[in-house]
What does this fold into?
Amino acid sequence: MVIGVVAMGILMATPFAGTMVRRSATLGAVSSVRTTLAAARLQSVKTGAVVVVVVSKNANNGIHMLTFRDKADLAATSANDGNMVQDTGEPTLAQMDVGSSVHLWKRGGTKDQLSTSAPFDGYSINGALDTSLTHRVVFLPTGGIQLPQNSNSGTPQPVSPEGRGIYFADAAGKNFLRVTVVSSIASEARVDKYETGRGYVSSGWGWQ
It folds into this structure.
């Protein structure tokens, strides 16, 4: 009888424990992504240089974020200065990997598909649009960001599944989130979560 009661207790607790594990991993990812973006913004304001955060996948299909200082708005010494690409002499400021329990994943998209999961794509260089500049958040010394120009990188409106952001989910595909920078003026990161029937919303979350 005692064994039966204990077994029943374990069975009842298992779904709750799974929810808590997924929630903890996802919130940890949110914190890591927001901290990386906030640190890049601060560096840009403090140094008077453009600072770029590039989002990619690591060898384990986890989220990798690399932050470097571009030479734009400093004394230009090369034609490559300000091209939003890390050239020789442009220092890496930080690198961060989000835990393997969280994957780049946009709701309705494909798991681990970078092209749809980090749409900060397309930037103007000397008046010409360069569509090869993808998956990067470009912070300006003014405290804002340079707006990406590809059509998939529009401003994510409330209840919209589209627009620029870093989209990720837990490995089970139960909880989908987006960290985005909405304004080009005040580049604070906003966190949205996908809720069935509501889309990505910034409040009123539930956890699965």
